[in-house]
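Summary for the funding panel

The consortium committed to producing paired sequence-structure records for every protein in the target list. Below we show the first two records in order, beginning with the earlier of the two.
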Amino acid sequence: MAMLLSGFGLGLGLGLVVVVVLLSLNNGADSEYIEYNTAGRIVPGKINVHLVPHSHDDVGWLKTVDQYYVGANNSIRGACVQNVLDSVISALLEDKNRHFIYVEIAFFQRWWRQQSNTLKIKVKELVDSGQLEFINGGMCMHDEATPHYIDLIDQTTLGHHFIKNEFGHTPRVGWQIDPFGHSAVQAYLLGAELGFDSLFFSRIDYQDRAKRLQDKTLDVVWQGSKSLASSSQIFTGISPRHYDPPDGFTFEINDVSPPIQDDILLFDYNVQERVNDFVAAAFAQANVTRTNHIMWMMGTDFRYQYANSWFRQIDKFIHYVNQDGRVNALYSTPSLYTDAKHAADEKWPLKTDDFFPYADHPNAYWTGYFTSRPGLKGYVRVLSAYYLTARQLEFFKGRIDSGPNTDALADALAIAQHHDAVSGTERQHVAADYALRLSLGYKKAEKLVASSLAYLTKSGSSSGVANFQQASLLTNGCPLLNISYCPPSEAVLSGGKSLVVVVYNSLGWKRQEVIRIPVSTDRITVQDSSGKNVEAQLLPISNATLNIRNYYVTAYLGKSPRETIKYWLAFSVSVPPIGFSTYTISTARQTGPGIAISSVYTSEESIDNTIEVGQGNLKLIYSAREGKLTHYANSRNLVTASTEQSYSYYSGNDGTDKDPQASGAYVFRPNKTFPIKSESQVSLTVVRGPILDEVHQQLNSWISQITRVFKGKEHAEVEFTIGPIPVDDSTGKEITTQITTALKSNGTFFTDSNGRDFIKRIRDFRTDWDLQVNQPVAGNYYPIQGKFYLRIDPLGEGAKWRRTTGQEIYSPLLLAFTEQDGNEYINSYVSTFSGVDPSYALPNNTALITLQELANGKVLLRLAHLYEIGEDRDYSTLASVELKKLFRTKKINKVTETNLSANQERGEMEKKRLVWKVEGPGDESKVVRGGPIDPEKLVVELGPMEIRTFLIDFANIRVFGS
């Protein structure tokens, strides 16, 4: 019995008034231990609420990846992933019915290294029982707009191999809950081709979500590839809200949701109230979802640092909700939820194309990050190509775990694909951390590349080893070649010494390209490995380039450049597939034979009204008076078009009283468009020569541009230098360039999906809903990849150039330098090499995107068809690759086809994959895919847009030579 004094008052002049209320609590009985029944299972005929405990742990964002892991720098954000994992594992071991999913393997791998063998055994038991399940399984939850598809494959593969090696498991569900829009490549390549049965995410356009809620179309079957059609489909679930639970059901230690209070000796007993809240939220979600299964994402960013705070409440809800009986609650995972959805035997709406752009309210289009931190984006792309090349060279030399390898670069590139890394949406110190990791990874890989080239160039008669310095835009020998700084090529050669340039080609076909390196004299000659003079051209270096060179070399090295460079040396090279060629640059008493010094003049010197640029089929015509491009003409395909280029900027909106949303790293909210006019009459500087012509333009003090037209190419290359962007007017600026032609596009254009498929776009139009246009500029921006190249082809003929050049841009030639006395190097070392049969090259529609020796000695091979179905009359056909000729000096013992991440055999994956029904007639078109490999012929077939992955066992021999 207890007495509660609930009212007491003094009535002045009225006497003392006392109100006493006596309450009986539990008739004197003590509170008892409650054993919660958490063994909820699916109940047919009821709404089944699948409760999925999770923590979304960004692999860097406001803090660095390591700071997030250890809980450092908590003044920015109180987040410690180490606590999450420690706490969750402990909570799972307390109750076998509890489940938890984990996504970011970059964090889990850090945690796993620190655990005792005893705990590792227990964690493996949790994984085997399904209590702890790895979802997605990549090193991070990658961005879907700005990475290249090869990077997405690589980072996912890295995580999947860790899970396979340590736990023997293969993830089967995609979990991209936070990226800011979703790509078609994610759907079919990192969905269906991995063997995933489903994919879940949260962020879609607010107008799209509203319609899907109304139509009950949040769950779809997504067909991301028109080429692979129904074989590329994956069940896709879109959350009805964000990736957190319904309002009132978050239970981190500082959250404000009311917990279930079921101790009758305490105040605020609220079991029935909270059960009612749960049931109401469940019915509300069931009303917008097909089938009687709904999923609640029980967690959000960096939750479960004190896991019992969550699990205690979920235990109680399952216990009391199931006692109530109106709905059924259970611990679940996305895999269990997927199986339940599939068992319902429902037909689902079919989704094609992608989910870009993404807006979460009328003035918040998340298209700003397509260009945020372009320097980091470029760094990631350059090192991605370097990693591809380094793995090839590591394969030729042979992987040595104790020596230099590519592992550190792989790790750095993997976490750089995170949706707050390459996206450019992280804090500055975090961006610097990503860049540092990439730099350190590169330095280790560079040693491997140098030693591999030394190995391949050493012939049987050679007693020495070449000491290579490399220059693939970012290398030890020429770390700043992109700003025209390259000590090996700038050095003044004397005493009969010459510079040896080894040019490596990572593509599977022969390449004839022009390379450019800075030199400090015009008295040079260039020869190929047979001693034949090579035609070359010396081009002046622009003032803008020199200014950048001097500024950044000093900033990078702490001292000014030693040499004063005078020219770019440009010469044509011919390089065999997956191999190298060698060239020598020697000093001479005078400019050597075949070396042309470019003629230079300005538009002011021209007596004509127009200036024609280009030595081959392509001509660009400029107005001498206005100093700008006016026409494009190709004499081979007879395409002519009026063409203009101009620069503008969008001023950033700071927000309004009605809507405070400002333009920034995530959101593009332009205020107004302003043309960028030149500060004076623009004078074109025209550079002509036998290999290429250049047009130099200085628009103002912070925008300059060089347009190059190569004699042997039919496209223009535009290199622009922008910045520092002036902000002294306190206005943020988005710089754009416009190409204006007379082509009638009717508002239709195409953008690529992660450098792979192309997707049709129509201005101010969406295929899935009637678009309410609020931001006509930001709402029509889409992610594209690559540099600025210009070419116009007749309708239906552009794919050949676009696909081939796209591969060459992604995988630039790698340059390596060494010096020789006399002809010492040429006489003693292998000067040309190809990893494939001398008479063989990959088909023009096929790319080698992975060649890597794994730690277990097996070799990982990926081949990709480059064309979509119907894209080109010649190349959108079945391609064939002869493995015996691809590996000309090695005996193949066994070839095993696997899924995309090589964590299971392809046949096993296909047997396990769930087949989903779609509404309507579906796509009945025949999918062209390559057939099984004959173990004797060893020929791989690939259909349009198909990527095939193999693990190869070779006989234990290594013989490489010329």
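The next record, for a separate protein in the list, is shown here:
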Amino acid sequence: MVHSAYDSFELLSKCPTKIDAIESYGSKLLVGCSDGALRIYGPDSSVTDRTDHHGQSQELRKETYTLERTVTGFSKKTLLAMEVLSSRELLLSLSESIAFHRVPNLETLAVITKAKGANAYSWDDRRGFLCFARQKRVCIFRHDGGRGFVEVKEFGVPDTVKSMSWCGENICLGIRKEYVILNATNGALTEVFPSGRMAPPLVVSLPSGELLLGKENIGVFVDQNGKLLQAERICWSEAPSVIVIQKPYAIGMLPRRVEIRSLRVPYQLIQTIVLQNVRHLTQSNNAVIVGLDNSVYGLFPVPLGAQIVQLTASGNFEEALALCKLLPPEDSNLRAAKEGSIHLRYAHYLFENGSYEEAMEQFLASQVDITYVLSLYPSIVLPKTSMVSEAEKPIDVSSDALHLSRVSSGMSDDMESSPPQSIEFDEHAAIESKKMSHNTLMALIKFLQKKRYSVIEKATSEGTEEVVLGAVGDNFGPYDSSRFKKSSKGRGNISVNSSAREMAAILDTTLLQALLLTGQSSAALELLKGANYCDLKICEEIIQKWNLHAALLELYKCNSMHREALELLHKLVEESKTQAELSSKFKPESIIDYLKPLCGTDPMLVLEFSMLVLESCPTQTIELFLSGNIPADLVNSYLKQNAPNMQGRYLELMLAMNDNGISGNLQNEMVQIYLSEVLDWYTDLISQQKWDEKAFSPTRKKLLSALESISGYNPEALLKRLPADALYEERAILLGKMNQHELALSLYVHKLHVLELALSYCDRVYESAADKVSAKSSANIYLTLMQIYLNPRKTIKNFEKRITNIVTQSTSVPKASSAVKARGGRGAKKIAAIEGAEDMRVNLASTDSGRSDGDADEFSEEGDSMIMLDEVLDLLSKRWDRINGAQALRLLPKETKLQNLLPFLGPLMRKSGEAYRNLSVVKSLRQSENLQVKDELYKQRKNVVKITSDSMCSLCNKKIGTSVFAVYPNGKTLVHFVCFRDSQSMKAVVKGSPLRRR
């Protein structure tokens, strides 16, 4: 026996005759005797606890009952069964037939004569349906609400019915050899399973609407359609003849005793009440009535609280918890306290017996504080908070817990206070101890993970509320310096005055230790990567002890200790160069990946640690600066101070990645760096007497490319740094940036002697001005090159002097194109006429250097031996479409043969003729268009409007008559001219005047 669920009490003894049937009504006992009389017994005490509207007590009492009334001749034959129908205040009795009496005065209401010889019945109280079995027939009657019953159906069955019960809309029948389901609508039979050979069939209806069917000494659960519900069975010690269901127990009547079993799997035996010659078993409203031959016993339920205490003390915790669910709703606080106490004691019992995961489930259900569970793990280090000391105190889970016996449920002395014993264990014992430790920690991990979501959510919400209230000026009072302090990702350095966050810190710190102690380093790493409240000092010490570098990095990161994390990461990167196991995990790119999120919050820290990987990963580092939107000037100045050798590389890569993102200051800085390197290279070669103007180092190529492609630098400042007798190509590019085209071209022609560069220079100048307003003046750059070819001595003579003047001047020089004014003449006019009208608009004064009268004299003095006429003719033949023909012819010497000008004049004349023809065609087309418009105008003026005597004004609806009229553009709408004028004036007034508001 597990515990006492019922107390047995003898209500009635020494009945004068044998008892055939027994039932209760309120506090009364209705006893049907073998002499056909119905004897009514009541309690001796006259005090009533609960009474109905008739003044009758509603419950049986644990008292001796005495005879109050005898109804003789109640039944003519043996009374087989009785049942009080409380909802209808009727007494149903089965003897010779089925009779209904009104209670409590026992007036006969109805007798169903067709039930004569019936041996089994079932009453459906919800619908008022009665079914009974007579021989091989099943009849269904319905109570009409008054004094009578109406027959509904009658069906035939294969054999005599021994037991029956309503199951929803159907009826379950236990016939001689099997159970069947009878469809109460059409009489269809559905077989369930055989009923057994030894014991008669037994059908018991459960409160849930399901059925319990007896098969020998086994009870099988089926649904209303006869399908098995579960594999488990109730196994009685013998086949019961009657079963009464009174949650949470099933009471079975056996020949010499009454068995009480739990309705929970595994349906264990709860209690056995030994009574000899048990004949009847029926359920009352508050007890179970047991009838013997001449006596009646009452089985009164033991109060649930007392049962729970018994079960807990005996270690049957699951049954105790099941009984807690049955406590009334008004005792919810008591119920929660009892459940918590039982869960807690059950957890200790399971923990001590090695069922660690099951123990943690019970700790979880008990809602006990986390620190209480952690007290079972002395090896776990907890943060120094105010909660730990409080949690170590005994927990008063309920007032009832003080009375519960702590049999095998308290914490063991070994876990709490026993000093470690120095006992020599063998190898097997050591392995078992290690296994137990691992299992306990695994159970703890699952417990903490299940608790973590709610704890972290509460801590986060409190932190959010604190920030919001702090932002609006609310003050919670001074912080207590003894409180736990937490610094973590997303929370900053906050002095925590929150029990929720203290609990979160304890949980996360413990969880991390447990994960590491069980070898789950990857899970520990994932914990640190997410939002957590791990204690920095404790976790740092443990992680360093286990030598888990990645976890330590995440710990620093989540606590915003970025400098410490980067220092550690740099150390690991350096060690990875010599240790193969670290090389795959920690690379210079790891530092860059760590720095990316810090660009917006701490750019100086990013710059400081990016210097460590700038040389090994220059491209990725520059991408870091660009993607992080770190100001380029800040990066440049930092590099200039700390890594000057990488400054040029940074500017170079930045310019390659983002042409428009680099400022003029940085462009000038980059060009200055290139120039310094080139000058150092030039000085070194000069000292070795190996300088060659046509030698190009990689840096000089970069310098030339930068000078040509970018425009943000200061050419005057760079020009001052160039040597006077070298680096002519750089000087030419700088002069070109200063619009000193003549000097630049002179360098290409007379210093570098590379005519291709001079022609390319002219092309660049011409094409760069193609989209500008002064695009026509760009053609004069070719005329400047012609002058240099045709007047070389003058160019060389003035070259050095002009270069010196430009270098000494700090301000920019005006364009050379305004220095000389070209001279006009008749020949120029003729050629200009050939070129076309558009070429006449070219301002001859816009050339870099037009030839004056003095130039002609100089030509005659110098002679034609130095003139580069072949180069001039080649230039004219290649760029004839970009050169002003009139000005070019004026610059040529008089001795130039016209035949040599055919490559220049031929295409020029063809272009001019083609332009003339095209313009003529355009002129003709425009004239034709003009004529078409005039013709259309004449046609429109020929429209005729006919005014008749019936013509009406569209405005005033009066006849036009002989009045002056107007016609709308559609040619059909006629109006008086006066009406038209008035309407126009009204429109003008409405349009020009603002509306007045009423």
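Regarding this second record: The CA atoms of residues 935 and 970 lie 19 Å apart. Residues 389-425, 474-497, 810-865 have pLDDT under 50 and may be disordered.
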